[in-house]
Amino acid sequence: MTLSTVVRTHGTGGRLSFAVVRRAHPVLARALLRRTHRRLALAAPSAGERELAARAPQAGYGHRIRP
After folding, report:
1. Which residues 6+ apart lie within 8 Å of 29 measured at CB?
2. What are the DSSP calls for 25-61, one per residue?
3. Model pTM greater than 0.70?
4. Please, which of 9, 28, 34, 49 could form a disulfide with 14 given CB 3.0 to 4.6 Å?
């Protein structure tokens, strides 16, 4: 995965503010990607859950649930 940023600085104020942002940006970008990866990994079903779902009979035609 590639994450990039393009910046155009205009004047001394822009260069000064980007000097601060440039130091923090890699740290914040990595943290954002780690958090997103963790949330996606926790939302996905585990291998055991996928196996149980594959073995469970599917409700549909030909399957009747009797009381």
Report:
1. 3, 5
2. HHHHHHHHHHHHHHHHHHHSPPHHHHHHHHHSPPPST
3. no
4. 9
